[in-house]
Amino acid sequence: MSSSPNPRSPRPHPPVTVIGAGLGGLSAAIHLRLAGHPVRIFERNPTPGGRANRLELNGVSFDTGPTLLNYPWVFEDLFRRAGRNLADYVTLLPVEPTVTYCWPDGRRLTLSRDRERLRQELEGFQDGAGAALDRFFADAQEKFRIAFEKLIPRNEDHFLRYFGALSLAEFRRTALWRSMYRELGRFFPSRYICEALGSYAMYLGGSPFQLPGTFSILPYGELAHGLWLPRGGIYALVEAIVRLAREIGVEIETACAVERILTDGDRVRAVRLAGKDTLPAELVVCNVDWPSAVTELLGEPPPRLAMSPAVVTYYWLVRERPAGLGHHTIFLPGDYRGAFRHLLRGRGLPPDPAFYVAAPPPPNNTTPASRQLLFVLVPTPTLSRLDQVDWTQALATLKEHILRRMFQSGFTLSPAAILSERIWTPHDWQQRFRLFDGSAFGAAHTLTQIGPFRPRNYSRRVRGLYFVGGSTNPGAGLPMVVISGRLVAERIASHVR
Ligand SMILES: Cc1cc2nc3c(=O)[nH]c(=O)nc-3n(C[C@H](O)[C@H](O)[C@H](O)COP(=O)(O)OP(=O)(O)OC[C@H]3O[C@@H](n4cnc5c(N)ncnc54)[C@H](O)[C@@H]3O)c2cc1C
Questions:
Q1: Counting atoms of ligand 1 from 1, which one is nearest the CA of 49?
Q2: Are the C-beta atoms of 42 and 251 separated by less than 8 Å?
Q3: Mean pLDDT, range 389-394, rounded to an integer
Q4: How far apart are CA 378 and CA 305, in angstroms?
Q5: 2 pLDDT exceeds 60?
Q6: Which domains does the chain have, with CATH numbers?
Q7: Ligand 1 centroid vs 242 CA: distance in angstroms?
Q8: Average pLDDT for residues 99-109, to the nearest whole number?
Q9: Is the CB of 478 within 6 Å of ligand 1?
Q10: Which residue puts its alpha carbon closest to atom 29 of ligand 1?
Q11: What mean pLDDT do residues 20-33 have?
């Protein structure tokens, strides 16, 4: 028998080096491993998960970032592709009611997946809100279908082909030319309802006055499909995905930072590990936040990109949860428009910020019943506009503001009831996860930075170099970065084939 290679036999799948074990990197690694590539991940932190990480405070574990999960089918699909069942790895529990909004004038709005309950709640803010809700649902359901069937799941770089997938009626439905706030206003004249439903924009780019109307699918997605929390906290989901990755043969090396992506002409050649070796690499998938990746690992100038806000996060171990405080409570400012303007263009910490308090169940059974966890997230301008901040003073003022706003809304928490505290400023977020300009959610989802206009998931300059995660397509949030992992694997398959 001849030992010469058969010219017709398919080329073996080349090994892939993944930089970063955020959920985007893990998802890409799983999809690529399932496609037949040997995959090795290098993660600079001691634990995988990226922003969805875990920290210990007096022996109690806190989720660092995400506190809520939507679109559970995205995670189920990841496991199904590997021939596994998500439910065998982690249990997702519905959060109900979903979110409560509080205003400084004492008004409160609680959202629910229960349509009748929601209808009654909205009627308290707007006569005939029930009928408006039905019209909103019918419209947003169609937007949601278009987004999830025709826009989000595709690698398409040309805007004509991207939008060409839509019929004229579908394109009209996207409401790309209208702001999210105005789009909500078509259904809800009540400023309270628009402010509540519009506040989701905070996580995608900053402002409902700037994000396209398509993003009315965010509140719709939550109201129609629910919010979820894994039993054991968000990190239990990360552990499940890490376990799946390892079971199928993905190698994960933690506490191992990549210092540089090395190229040879227009091809990727190797990655240089911090203080260690240079490893040859034919295919590299970079999960480092895209603008940080191009500046820090490729040495390119900073790209011109509008970034989403930074955040200050407080982790509090408290004696008891303030009475009546649900899982997720959002405190909106008196001057809603002004607060968002500050977030996008102001300098320094906002004087009257929107913020939210999450009260997750303690993740481990060892937590004494008299200890409860509270997590507070305050969006802020990004780091380049926080250069004058005296952090000691600013954090104390911010904490006073948070406790005062909670008190005004009927949730009493005295400073003495906070038994232990940890605070992460935008500097901490930037340094731990290499977030560009400290932006918590990556590139903003403005009209010129979505779909074919968002940073691509492959390098146009360096062959063999790919990107995955929140600043590429389809965007930020846990389900989106998991989809981003599938998209990059499909992109590689189309290039390598
Ligand atoms: C405070 C906060 C709250 C949030 N809340 C929610 C929520 O409730 N629900 C939701 O769906 N989403 C939420 N998000 C968004 C969500 O967390 C992110 O969109 C998602 O986790 C980003 O995943 P990623 O894979 O793109 O990037 P990351 O999680 O940032 O992962 C990138 C990884 O690369 C590693 N890395 C960086 N540089 C190097 C290097 N040189 N070498 C090796 N490794 C490197 C990093 O350490 C990190 O582990 C929240 C985000 C934040 C910050």
A1: 49
A2: no
A3: 95
A4: 22
A5: no
A6: 16-92+232-306+438-496 (3.50.50.60), 114-225 (no CATH)
A7: 15
A8: 96
A9: yes
A10: 50
A11: 98
